[in-house]
Amino acid sequence: MEDIKAIDIMNYPDSAGFDEEFMFDWKEYHVMCSGTFKTVFKGHVPNREEFKQIQKSGFLYKNPSVEALIAEMDEAGYEYVILNDMKMWSPRYHHQLIYGYKMNTDKLGEIIAKGKGRLIGGAGYNPFDIENSLKEIEKGVKEYGFKYAYMHPITFGLAPNDKKCYPLYAKCLELGIPVGMQVGHSAEPLPSEVGHPMYVDEVAIDFPNLKINLSHTGYPWVDEWCSMLWRHNNVYGDISAYMPTNLEKATLDFMKSRGANKVMFGTNGFGLKSVKQSLMSLDMKDSIKKKILRDNALEFLNIK
C-alpha cells in the first residue's frame, strides 16, 4: 500500500515554482494567523524569514521549480497533482486576493506542459467577469489540456446555486470536464454561510451529468456534506486543507463506509509526504485507502 501512486486533487501553481506574492502581506492573512491557523502560527504574523522556517516543516512548502515538484512527487509516491488557478476576491478590502492574483491560463498552461503529463490544470472562474472566464476555461481545455475547473464562490459572496455560477457549470458540461468548489467555512475572514453544502443540492439536480467536487470536507456542516455525496451520483468531495488524522469522526466514518467511492484526497499545499502519510496511518481498510488516494479521482477526472 505504501507504493500506491496518489492523486492530489487540490494544489496550486506556487507548489511548482510560480512566483506568487508573499501571502502574509495581505490583511486577510493577518486575521487568519490569529484565527483559523492560530495553532500553526500561534497568533503571530510571520515575516518572510519566519515563514520560510515554518515551510521547512512541510506546511505550505513551495517548490522552486516544476522539476522540484516532480521530484517531490516521486519521493512521496504521487502520479498526478492538480494545480488550480483559484480566483478569489476580498469583499472587505475590494481587491483580488493573492491566490490567482498573477496567474492566468497561459502561465498555468506553461507550467502544466513542463510537468510532462504528471501535472493537471484546473482552470479558474471569476463570476464577476463571466464572459472572459468562460473563454479562458475553454482555452485551457482545448489548448493546454486542462481537465478540471475550480471556483471559490465564498470569496465572491455567492452560493454555488447563484445565477452567476451557472455559466461555469454549463461550460464545464459542454467541455466534458468536472467542476470543483470550496464548501464549508472560509479560512479567510469572509462570510461563510454561502459555503453551506446544501446549496449544491439544486446544482446537482439541474446538472445531473456534471461531476461536482465539494472541496474541504464542508466543515462545520459535515453531515450535510456527506448527504450531498451520498444523495447525488454526480457529487464527490475532497478532504484537502485538513490532515486526515484530524478529520471529524463523522467524516472518517463516512469515508470508511458508504462514502468510500466518493471521497477524494488532496493536500491543499500542506505537504505531499506528510498529508499522504497521515492518510495511510488511518485505521481503515487498504482497499478504501486506495480508493481515496487514487481510484475515486481517476473516476472523477475521467482518466483511464
Structural class: alpha/beta
| Largest sheet strand order | 1-2-5-6-7-8-9-10
Mean pLDDT: 91
Helical fraction: 25-40%
The largest sheet is:
8 strands, parallel
User: How many helical elements?
Assistant: 12
**Beta strand %:** 5-15%
Following the backbone from N to C, one meets helices and strands in this order, namely: EHHHHEEEHEHEHEHEHEHEHH
What Rg do the Cα atoms give?
A: 18 Å
Q: What is the 3D shape?
A: globular
Oligomer: single chain
Q: How many beta-strand runs?
A: 10
Low-confidence parts: none
What is the CA-CA span between the terminal residues?
21 Å
How is this fold's topology laid out?
Layout: E1 6-11, H1 27-33, H2 38-41, H3 48-55, H4 66-76, E2 78-84, E3 89-90, E4 95-96, H5 105-114, E5 119-124, H6 130-144, E6 148-151, H7 166-175, E7 179-182, H8 200-206, E8 212-215, H9 222-231, E9 235-238, H10 249-256, E10 263-264, H11 272-280, H12 286-301
Helix pairs in contact: 5-6, 6-7
Description:
With 304 residues, the protein is an alpha/beta fold. The protein is built from 12 helices and 10 strands. The chain has helices at residues 27-33, 38-41, 48-55, 66-76, 105-114, 130-144, 166-175, 200-206, 222-231, 249-256, 272-280, 286-301, and strands at residues 6-11, 78-84, 89-90, 95-96, 119-124, 148-151, 179-182, 212-215, 235-238, 263-264. It has an 8-stranded parallel sheet with strand order 1-2-5-6-7-8-9-10, with helices on both faces. Strands 3-4 form a two-stranded antiparallel ribbon. Strand 5, helix 6 and strand 6 (148-151) form a beta-alpha-beta unit. Helix 5 (105-114) runs parallel beside helix 6 (130-144). The longest helix has 16 residues, at 286-301. The protein starts with 5 loop residues before the first strand and ends with a helix.
